[in-house]
Design a protein that fits this description.
Order of helices and strands: HHHHEEEEHEEEHEEEH
Number of domains: 3
Strand order of the largest sheet: 4-3-2-1-5
Structural class: alpha+beta
Number of strands: 10
Number of helices: 7
Largest sheet: 5 strands, antiparallel
Strand content: 15-25%
Length: 270
């Protein structure tokens, strides 16, 4: 029993300084890496590099520096880093085969950087279900910020594998709007109201000119379609302005916005 205790004490005395030094190295190393990445991102930005590519490159730098730090800590315990790298490389091949999807995320991130379907700051819709402003394009995922301040994190392969609608990346964007009126209401009067509201909206551009057309004779309404154009950053401002003020002007003019309804005819067989 004393032999085991002596062995334990000897190992503790021998390895305690190494463990303590390794922990200090990790803490200080991660602290330094965080600041190096921030500095690199700032330098990328100052060089005129696109902000999307800047954030992507910064995430790659962060990963590489952290791997190097872990190799350094392993060396403190007497691990042969050359052999360790060889074993690590073989291990990575096996892990890579098992995590084929994760490698695909990185490849998809590179594709996003090359083809640039959107950039940081663009308002996009991905897969028909996720709409938000692009916050970052990282090595493995893309982050969106929604209008209600939620954060959506989407794997890069899911981004490239779905339909991408860039709403605001063209500087000028058309706002698709549909207003339903009753069959008994005056189409020309409703059209004039929609156009007048468009002229009163400070964000709507004069060129291209706004138009209003009959888009559909639906079951319960005549649907009027309009597409006012505005600068991309005012997309939601324009959308909400039109929705509110068209409704108010329709109410003043006595134009109803019908809800779905069904006429039921009773037939007596007496």
């Amino acid at each position: 029993m004393d032999k085991y205790i002596d062995t334990g004490i000897t190992m503790a005395i021998e390895y305690a300084p190494k463990v303590l030094l390794a922990l200090i190295t990790l803490v200080v190393g991660f602290w330094i890496i965080k600041r190096v990445v921030r500095f690199a991102e700032k330098q990328f930005g100052n060089s005129g590099m696109d902000i999307s590519l800047s954030k992507f490159m910064s995430s790659i730098v962060s990963i590489l520096l952290k791997v190097m730090l872990l190799f350094s800590v392993a060396g403190m315990f007497g691990v042969n880093t050359t052999s360790f790298i060889a074993i690590f490389s073989a291990l990575m091949v096996g892990i890579g085969m098992a995590l084929n999807g994760s490698i695909g995320h990185v490849a998809s991130g590179v594709m996003l950087m090359i083809f640039k379907p959107f950039k940081v700051g663009d308002l996009v819709e991905i897969g028909g279900g996720h709409t938000g402003t692009v916050e970052a394009i990282n090595a493995f995922n893309t982050t969106l910020a929604t209008l209600d301040n939620k954060r959506i994190i989407i794997a890069n392969s899911n981004v490239t594998g779905n339909t991408i609608t860039n709403i605001s990346g063209q500087e000028i964007v058309g706002v698709e709007l549909t207003y339903g009126i009753g069959y008994s209401d005056d189409i020309d009067k409703a059209r004039a109201i929609i156009l007048q509201v468009g002229k009163s909206c400070p964000q709507i551009l004069d060129d291209p000119a706004q138009g209003v057309v009959v888009g559909e004779l639906a079951d319960s309404s005549v649907n009027l379609n309009t597409r006012p154009f505005c600068k991309s950053e005012y997309y939601w401002d324009t959308y909400f302005y039109m929705q509110e003020h068209v409704k108010k002007e329709f109410d003043k003019a006595g134009i109803g916005i019908p809800f779905p309804q069904m006429d039921v005819h009773m037939i007596s067989k007496n």
